[in-house]
Design a protein that fits this description.
Keywords: Amino-acid biosynthesis, Aromatic amino acid biosynthesis, Oxidoreductase. The protein is α/β, with parallel strands linked by helices. It has eight helices and twelve strands. Helix 1 links the parallel strand 1 and strand 2.
Length: about 250
C-alpha cells in the first residue's frame, strides 16, 4: 500500500483527500490511499513516519506551511523564495528517507490567474496577509504586476494598507483584486471582505481563493459590476496535479 496524506490542524473536509481518493478510484489504483493527518502541533510530524512506513507523498496545509520547513532536508528553489511548503516529496534510499519541500500553490495560482489578465492589468490588490498570500505575491512579481496588500493586523509592513484606505481611486488603479482570506467560505457564505464594491468595473478581475461555495459573495458583487471572476477550485486542481507529478518523478 502506498499512503499519501495531508498534514494540518483541524481538517474536516479536505479538498486533497476528496481529489486523490476519487483519482485513485477512477484510475483503479487500489494499492493507493490518501489519509488526513491531523496534528495538534508540528512537533508530532516525525511520528507520522514511525507509524506509517509506506508514506509516498504528503501535502501540507495551514497552520504548518511554514512550521514544517525545519523538518525538511531540502527545499525547492521556488518554495524557498515563497517561504511556504504545501508538498513534501519522500525520497527513499534503503532504510533512509529524505524529505524535500515544494510549493505547488505557485503552479496552481499562476495557471489559473494568467488567462484572465490582459495589458490593462498592471496592479493588483491582495485582500489578506496570511500564508496564502505568499505564493500570490511570488506569482504577481513573476508576471510583472505591482501589488498592495490589505491587512487587519496591528502592524503594517511595506506594501500593506488598511481596508479603510481602499477607495474609488485605488480600485481604478488596481484592476486585479485577489481574496486571500477565508471570508465567504461555507457555512459563512454571507460574508466578504469590506471593500467598496460599487467602484468595481468590467475591467476588473476578481480572484477568490475560496472554492466552497462555488460562487462567493465576493464574486457575486464583482459579477454585478461586470468584472471577470474565478474561484480557487481550478488553482487547487492545478496544485494537486503538480504534487502528484512531483511525488512520482
Amino acid at each position: 500500500m502506498k499512503t499519501y496524506g495531508l498534514i494540518g490542524y483541524r481538517l474536516g473536509y479536505s479538498f486533497s483527500k476528496g481529489f486523490f481518493t476519487e483519482k485513485f478510484q477512477n484510475e483503479k489504483l487500489t494499492e493507493h490511499e490518501y489519509v488526513n493527518f491531523e496534528l495538534d502541533s508540528i512537533d508530532e510530524f516525525p511520528e507520522i513516519f514511525k507509524k506509517n512506513d509506506h508514506i509516498a507523498g504528503l501535502n501540507c496545509t495551514i497552520p504548518y506551511k511554514q512550521q514544517i520547513i525545519p523538518y525538511l532536508d531540502e527545499i525547492d528553489e521556488e518554495a524557498a523564495k515563497v517561504g511556504a511548503i504545501n508538498t513534501v516529496k519522500i525520497i527513499r534510499t534503503g532504510e533512509k528517507i529524505k524529505l524535500k519541500g515544494f510549493n505547488t500553490d505557485i503552479y496552481g495560482f499562476e495557471n489559473s490567474l494568467k488567462p484572465m489578465l490582459n495589458e490593462k492589468h498592471k496592479k493588483a490588490l491582495i485582500l489578506g496577509t496570511g500564508g496564502a498570500s505568499k505564493a500570490i505575491k511570488y506569482i504577481l512579481d513573476k508576471l510583472g504586476l505591482e501589488y498592495l496588500s490589505a491587512s487587519i493586523e496591528d502592524q503594517l509592513y511595506d506594501g500593506e494598507i488598511r481596508y479603510e484606505q481602499i477607495d474609488k481611486a485605488l480600485l481604478q488603479e488596481h484592476l486585479v483584486v485577489i481574496n486571500a482570506t477565508p471570508l465567504g467560505t461555507f457555512p459563512k457564505v454571507d460574508s466578504c471582505a469590506n471593500i467598496p464594491y460599487q467602484h468595481l468595473t468590467a475591467d476588473h478581475v476578481l480572484f477568490d481563493l475560496v472554492y466552497n461555495p462555488e460562487e462567493t459573495l465576493f464574486m457575486k458583487k464583482g459579477k454585478e459590476k461586470g468584472a471577470a471572476v474565478k474561484n480557487g477550485l481550478e488553482m487547487l486542481h492545478g496544485q494537486a496535479i503538480k504534487a502528484w507529478e512531483i511525488w512520482n518523478s
